[in-house]
């Protein structure tokens, strides 16, 4: 062991010679040699305080007498002296230096014999540390008491902290006393935050048990108990309402349902669609890569999609975007247009077109030929549709603003119809987390009803005799059976002139042919389902129909259409008509009465104008019969003239019209319910008005016999 240098002290440095500083280094005289005294120690003198037989005060050490402790200390001192003497000899050999000014022997602190001065104790070796332990053992009783108090305080603090934590978690059932009222306990439990780690562990374990229920289940618990517990944990962990969580969980196996809920917590990849009307996918990818965009093709199933992983620039403001080279569009939105497969020079209808992703994709597939009618019931959304159409360079599209239920009446005879129906959005929960809680049972009754009527209207709008088409594609961004298979089955039941055909999509799961005891048509396996956990796309459903014949005349019309409203009016009760006679005051108005002939002319002009708006030639329709005008003479004929008129025929071979005798009052006769004066066409307008008023008075007076 190396000699200890703990007691060495450095002497005071000598005075500084300024002459040595100002001189050059080579001219400076050599420094004087300094002699040091070697430090020697007296072997009979104790080296530290461990040589004392006792410290200040008298203490008992763990039941041992002080005498015994003194003997052990004496043995340690003797062994310590041997070590110290060996260290001193080694120090002499090495020439340990000692200061001339302050020799170590004059240190009063080290050589003091005062018993009140506490000797320093050093633990250089094991013997010294043992001595320290023996000396500290004297006050072990006091220290142990103080440690016990500190331990009790720490235990009390830990218990208080646990109680505070119990207020923030609802896992421990003992946190809520049993003697509390039910309402108070429910309110308190509702305010507690869930322990997500414990919930996740419990969900995973319950799912594993349900996967192998016979081997892993507890005999005392039924499968319904496990399912109920799992649904409660899913609602607490993922934030779903109990109604929606149960509806979605029934669509999958337990393991797949858990994967579906997890997939809805992560957003889908950002996808852009290349506009082939302006550029090619390879050129677009090269341009975006030069701008710092990391991307790759979305998959082998699409030739225009690009999946973006990272971008240094906003994709909605690049020069390529503003030039219409691409559009931001989800990968799942490609699928309905790919299933529709529009051909060039066809007439296509998109019943719910906004914001224009599917419409512009169809226009690109048609190469701007033919015509596309892009309809949307929302006028505000139609403005965004128009903007995308102009930006992407689409020229074969007509934007219209009608209710989709009116289209069989407004226009028909399309080769293909695309219906992306409004839905609950259970397939795009990753985009809109509010779907988890804002969908109720009423929504799943109202939306399927609307979807069924829209699908019937779409089928009626297609021309079954089309040489290249006659197809209808129905799609939703939902995964529930009520909005997909049940709607398709309803259309098959109400329209026997359609059938399901293959969608032509290379991937996707088959639609359900049976679900929860309900049986569907076997052809529903031709439909396709898409899930976020299976294909990393939004949840989607696609079905394709082929119209093989005309719609039967007695078929049920889409509710909300004009034809259906007319049928309801015919089948309902008779229309209530107010038959109260018009008073004389109402007839004597300043307008001078109404003329049926003038009204008929105005009605005919309005009907012709309406037909022109619909693109129908008014002359091609059956002309309405004009009311015959009765010829009335200004003077009352006598009996002989009346008999002659009955016997004599007109030159054209027709009999002259009969004129009934009516009482004359003030030179005015009443014929056919109209007042006619004796004035000719040369009378002024003022005279005609006065004659009309006089005729009305004559009509109101009792008729003469």
Automatic annotation (TrEMBL):
<feature type="compositionally biased region" description="Polar residues">
    <location>
        <begin position="56"/>
        <end position="65"/>
    </location>
</feature>
<dbReference type="GO" id="GO:0005730">
    <property type="term" value="C:nucleolus"/>
</dbReference>
<dbReference type="InterPro" id="IPR023273">
    <property type="entry name" value="RCMT_NOP2"/>
</dbReference>
<dbReference type="InterPro" id="IPR049560">
    <property type="entry name" value="MeTrfase_RsmB-F_NOP2_cat"/>
</dbReference>
<feature type="active site" description="Nucleophile">
    <location>
        <position position="477"/>
    </location>
</feature>
<dbReference type="InterPro" id="IPR029063">
    <property type="entry name" value="SAM-dependent_MTases_sf"/>
</dbReference>
<feature type="binding site">
    <location>
        <position position="376"/>
    </location>
    <ligand>
        <name>S-adenosyl-L-methionine</name>
    </ligand>
</feature>
<feature type="compositionally biased region" description="Basic and acidic residues">
    <location>
        <begin position="560"/>
        <end position="582"/>
    </location>
</feature>
<keyword id="KW-0808">Transferase</keyword>
<dbReference type="GO" id="GO:0009383">
    <property type="term" value="F:rRNA (cytosine-C5-)-methyltransferase activity"/>
</dbReference>
<feature type="region of interest" description="Disordered">
    <location>
        <begin position="554"/>
        <end position="705"/>
    </location>
</feature>
<keyword id="KW-0539">Nucleus</keyword>
<keyword id="KW-0694">RNA-binding</keyword>
<feature type="binding site">
    <location>
        <position position="420"/>
    </location>
    <ligand>
        <name>S-adenosyl-L-methionine</name>
    </ligand>
</feature>
<keyword id="KW-0949">S-adenosyl-L-methionine</keyword>
<feature type="compositionally biased region" description="Acidic residues">
    <location>
        <begin position="98"/>
        <end position="115"/>
    </location>
</feature>
<feature type="compositionally biased region" description="Acidic residues">
    <location>
        <begin position="584"/>
        <end position="601"/>
    </location>
</feature>
<dbReference type="Pfam" id="PF01189">
    <property type="entry name" value="Methyltr_RsmB-F"/>
</dbReference>
<keyword id="KW-0690">Ribosome biogenesis</keyword>
<dbReference type="InterPro" id="IPR018314">
    <property type="entry name" value="RsmB/NOL1/NOP2-like_CS"/>
</dbReference>
<dbReference type="InterPro" id="IPR023267">
    <property type="entry name" value="RCMT"/>
</dbReference>
<feature type="compositionally biased region" description="Basic and acidic residues">
    <location>
        <begin position="614"/>
        <end position="633"/>
    </location>
</feature>
<comment type="similarity">
    <text>Belongs to the class I-like SAM-binding methyltransferase superfamily. RsmB/NOP family.</text>
</comment>
<feature type="binding site">
    <location>
        <begin position="352"/>
        <end position="358"/>
    </location>
    <ligand>
        <name>S-adenosyl-L-methionine</name>
    </ligand>
</feature>
<feature type="compositionally biased region" description="Basic and acidic residues">
    <location>
        <begin position="658"/>
        <end position="668"/>
    </location>
</feature>
<keyword id="KW-0489">Methyltransferase</keyword>
<dbReference type="GO" id="GO:0003723">
    <property type="term" value="F:RNA binding"/>
</dbReference>
<feature type="compositionally biased region" description="Basic residues">
    <location>
        <begin position="694"/>
        <end position="705"/>
    </location>
</feature>
<feature type="domain" description="SAM-dependent MTase RsmB/NOP-type">
    <location>
        <begin position="260"/>
        <end position="548"/>
    </location>
</feature>
<feature type="region of interest" description="Disordered">
    <location>
        <begin position="1"/>
        <end position="118"/>
    </location>
</feature>
<dbReference type="GO" id="GO:0000470">
    <property type="term" value="P:maturation of LSU-rRNA"/>
</dbReference>
<dbReference type="InterPro" id="IPR011023">
    <property type="entry name" value="Nop2p"/>
</dbReference>
<dbReference type="GO" id="GO:0070475">
    <property type="term" value="P:rRNA base methylation"/>
</dbReference>
<protein>
    <recommendedName>
        <fullName>Nucleolar protein 2</fullName>
    </recommendedName>
</protein>
<dbReference type="InterPro" id="IPR001678">
    <property type="entry name" value="MeTrfase_RsmB-F_NOP2_dom"/>
</dbReference>
């Amino acid at each position: 062991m190396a000699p200890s240098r703990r007691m060495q002290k450095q002497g005071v440095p000598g005075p500084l010679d300024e002459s040595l500083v100002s001189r050059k280094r080579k001219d400076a005289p050599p420094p004087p040699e300094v002699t040091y005294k070697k430090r020697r120690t007296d072997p009979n003198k104790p080296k530290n305080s461990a040589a004392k037989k006792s410290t200040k005060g008298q203490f008992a050490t763990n039941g041992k007498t002080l005498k015994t402790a003194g003997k052990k200390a004496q043995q340690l001192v003797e062994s310590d002296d041997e070590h110290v003497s060996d260290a001193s000899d080694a120090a002499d050999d090495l020439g340990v230096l000692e200061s001339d000014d302050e020799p170590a022997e004059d240190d009063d602190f080290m050589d003091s014999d005062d018993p009140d001065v506490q000797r320093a104790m050093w633990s250089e070796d094991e013997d010294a540390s043992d001595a320290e332990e023996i000396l500290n053992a004297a006050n072990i009783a006091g220290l142990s008491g103080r440690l016990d108090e500190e331990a009790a305080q720490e235990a009390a603090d830990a218990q208080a902290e646990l109680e505070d934590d119990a207020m923030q978690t609802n896992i421990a059932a003992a946190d809520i006393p049993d003697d509390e009222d039910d309402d108070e306990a429910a309110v308190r439990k509702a305010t507690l935050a869930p322990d997500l780690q414990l919930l996740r562990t419990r969900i995973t374990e319950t799912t594993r048990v349900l996967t192998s229920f016979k081997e892993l289940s507890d005999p005392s618990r039924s499968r319904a108990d496990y399912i109920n517990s799992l649904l409660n944990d899913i609602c607490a962990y993922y934030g779903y309402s109990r109604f929606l969580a149960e509806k979605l969980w029934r669509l999958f196996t337990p393991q797949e349902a858990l994967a579906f809920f997890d997939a809805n917590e992560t957003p889908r990849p950002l996808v852009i669609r290349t506009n082939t009307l302006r550029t090619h996918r390879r050129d677009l990818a090269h341009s975006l890569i030069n701008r710092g965009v990391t991307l790759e093709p979305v998959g082998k199933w699409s030739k225009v999609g690009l999946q973006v992983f990272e971008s240094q620039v906003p994709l909605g403001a690049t020069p390529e975007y503003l030039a219409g080279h691409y559009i931001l569009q989800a990968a799942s939105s490609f699928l309905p247009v790919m299933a529709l497969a529009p051909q060039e020079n066809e007439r296509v209808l998109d019943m719910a077109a906004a914001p224009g992703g599917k419409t512009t994709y169809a226009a690109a597939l048609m190469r701007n030929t033919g015509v596309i009618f892009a309809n949307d019931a929302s006028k505000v959304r139609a403005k965004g549709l128009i903007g995308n159409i102009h930006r992407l360079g689409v020229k074969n599209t007509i934007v219209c603003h009608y209710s989709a239920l009116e289209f069989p009446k407004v226009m028909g005879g399309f080769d293909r119809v695309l219906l992306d129906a409004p839905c609950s959005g259970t397939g795009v929960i990753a985009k809109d987390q509010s779907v988890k809680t804002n969908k109720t049972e009423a929504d799943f009754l109202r939306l399927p009803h609307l979807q069924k009527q829209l699908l019937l209207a779409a089928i009626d709008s297609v021309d079954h005799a089309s040489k290249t088409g006659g197809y209808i594609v129905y799609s939703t961004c939902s995964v529930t059976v009520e909005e997909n298979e049940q709607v398709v089955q309803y259309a098959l039941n109400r329209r026997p002139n359609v059938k399901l055909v293959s969608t032509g999509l290379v991937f996707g799961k088959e639609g359900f042919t049976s679900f929860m005891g309900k049986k569907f048509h076997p052809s529903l396996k031709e439909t396709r389902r898409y899930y976020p956990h299976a294909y990393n796309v939004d949840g989607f459903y696609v079905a394709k129909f082929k119209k093989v014949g005309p719609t039967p005349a007695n078929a049920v019309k889409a509710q909300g259409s004009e034809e259906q409203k007319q049928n309801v009016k015919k089948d309902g009760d008779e229309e209530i008509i107010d038959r109260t006679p018009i008073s004389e005051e109402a007839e004597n108005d300043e307008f001078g009465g109404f003329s049926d002939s003038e009204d008929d002319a105005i009605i005919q002009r309005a009907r012709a104008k309406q037909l022109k708006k619909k693109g129908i030639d008014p002359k091609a329709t059956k002309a309405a019969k004009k009311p015959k005008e009765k010829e009335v003479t200004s003077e009352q004929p006598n009996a002989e003239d009346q008999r002659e008129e009955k016997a004599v025929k007109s030159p054209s071979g027709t009999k002259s019209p009969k004129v009934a005798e009516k009482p004359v009052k003030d030179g005015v006769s009443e014929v056919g319910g109209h007042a006619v004066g004796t004035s000719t066409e040369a009378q002024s307008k003022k005279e005609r008005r006065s004659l009309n008023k006089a005729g009305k008075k004559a009509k109101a007076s009792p008729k003469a016999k």
